[in-house]
From TrEMBL:
UniProt protein name: Major facilitator superfamily (MFS) profile domain-containing protein
A single MF term (Gene Ontology): symporter activity
The keyword Ribosomal protein appears for this protein: no
Subcellular localization(s) per the UniProt record: Membrane
Amino acid sequence: MAVGLAKTSEEGQYNAKMTLLVVLSCMVAATGGIIFGYDLGISGGVTSMEPFLKKFFPEVYTKMNEDTKISNYCKFDSQLLTSFTSSLYIAGLVASFFASTVTRVFGRKPSILIGGTAFLAGSALGGAALNVYMIIFGRILLGIGVGFANQSVPLYLSEMAPPNYRGAINIGFELWVGIGVLLANLINFGTEKIKGGWGWRISLAMAAVPALILTLGALFLPETPNSLIQNSKDHEKAKLMLQRVRGTNDVQAELDDLVKASSLSKTIKHPFKNIIHRKYRPQLVMAIAIPFFQQVTGINVITFYAPVLFRTIGLGESASLFSAVMTGVVGAVSTSISMLIVDKLGRRALFMIGGIQMFLSQIIIGGLMAAQLGDHGGISKGYATSIIIFICIYVSGFGWSWGPLAWLVPSEIFPLEIRSAGQSITVAVGFIFIFLGAQTFLAMLCHFKSGIFFFFGGWVAVMTAFVYFLLPETKNVPIEQMSKVWREHWFWKRIVGEVNEDIKMEAA
């Protein structure tokens, strides 16, 4: 069954329809985003629950409830507490490099399967934890799962999607991340009310539900045509799969490009060494810069510690968790909007709109906190509400720009011969800075106080300028023909060469 009109081959486009197989496969694969988003949301809520703190982090519990001299900004400052959150991302960092080999040698599907299985085990251990060591070991298993899923799922989505729908389908991953965050916040809000103080166990154990969906679903996923060609000499099998996912028998043009790209990739024995070559310089810069910039927007520390942040401005435990639910709803809705418009407006326009929106809202949040929240005492309900509103504005700006696009753009710019290595670098850089952010945010909040929002706002200004000057538009460009956008860009063509020069060299 196919939906929509076939896309003709003119101007470099392939024949392709949006088929039911692609929709269903991408929906299953994109649930890998739920496990990532669920963890982002669940950890911050759990670490604000007093029974959880009392059992595993009694020093933080005592400081929060009994120390009247400590600053509002420093009540949750504990390296052991941040280790609970950040340990996952060190594990994810290491796992992403193993995932690169699995994804390249065995295919995208096995890597997704490993990710779901590891996350399933980690969620079970977290829910049953009796001491802090079990909690952190469970987080490590979750990190392995996230590392494999984040490495393989965006590649899977980009390779399965028709070029004209690639943006929308790939953003499905970030949409599921947002839904995962929202579900986690809703569950935290409900479990906090359970009498007996064991609601946090449900919060941690419920991560098994999306992990089980991903694991079982991965068993039935078709492998991508790109991967079939890369790992098999039987091109007929890849052609049949390509015909199924494109909804047409006329796939020879795309198949020829895939075979050509695969032949080139097999001459590359060490993709991590080759990605540093001059001709791949733009892709390498983006693989490092985009995930770095995504983290210094400050979004994940707000996602991790939203309830903690809301408690800092004087809200109670339940009100803080409810406010986190509100930001989760805003994030999911704004990502949905991005999915609808990304292939029409383009990547650059959304980056610019979201960047300006995030910058302005962070400056206002920082200003309000600087003016109204001191080291002691609370903040009026009106100002607290204003801060929550501007945090929602900030989250919505991220939701239709740096949230989905930081996954989409890297997944679509790498040629096949370095694609797995490039995605691993993207994921690894992201994990490094997620870890640093998670590990240092509470200390930064303690020392920077309201200035932390000016810190992140400054980075948003830098990254918006970076996109404006250095990122070419990639919408509607077939993934195997992406190299031309760099050869035509005002800056990158000086490094990778003019289009005409490349043509002359190939002819020679």
